[in-house]
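Onboarding guide, step 5: your first structure request.
Type a short instruction followed by the sequence, for example:

Predict the 3D structure of this protein.
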Amino acid sequence: MTHSIDHLNLVVRDLETTVRFYRDLLGFQQTNRATLQGDWIDAVAGLPGIQAEVVFLELPGNGPRIEVLQYLTPIGQNLPANSLANTFGLRHFALRISDMTATVARLRAAGVQFVGNPVEVPAGILKGSNVRKTLCYFHDPDGVLLELAEYHE
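The system replies with structure tokens like these:
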């Protein structure tokens, strides 16, 4: 039986740029760094001759890790240009925050481009009659769609 999400994997073009983004702008902490190579990783990924660098990031408290992975060989491909919210597949992951206004201002000051301004989810969509949620979307340096989510009653 599944009991939790272990981690999310992000394959990136530039490991250092992405780690700085998640660490410095979003508050993640680096917990480990390693080189991946050998028969075991080739077998898992189904690709021959893998050499990659991986950094594990976590938020203080609990929640899944983010596994940030840069393949040195073989090098992968970019996300398709159509990386819209309705594209099939895993589309985004959400980060729960406590101050939408301050977080958006801080990220914008750092040059982050948002898909739109924060909006409140209409009543009746979320479980619980008093629960309200404000959210907005933005992209990381590799085009991964992220959501900021603030809950209030």
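Each response can be followed by summary notes, for example: The first strand starts at residue 7 and ends at 11.
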